[in-house]
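Protein modeling request. Please complete all fields; requests missing the sequence field cannot be processed.
Requester role: graduate student
Desired output: 3D structure, token encoding
Chains: 1
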Amino acid sequence: MNITFDELRRVKHSLPTGSVKRIADKLGITEQTVRNFFGAKKAQDGELAGWHLEPGPNGGIVNIHDTSIYEEALRIIEETKATMA
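Delivered output (85 residues):
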């Protein structure tokens, strides 16, 4: 799956507080791995991001290898929108 880095960051910033922990718990991974996925600059622990960045407009093109974190983030965003409606 390919998206822009700016879009990946937009998704991250759309998540409600506590979502990193929810995603990590649901997928059985560390919170730092989730942060790494969304482009954490201080990534010290956790696994690699699971994507590759190619230079380009809008922060570059991100080729996501494993979409599970991204899909869970979108699910949480939709869930949040539904409860606010």
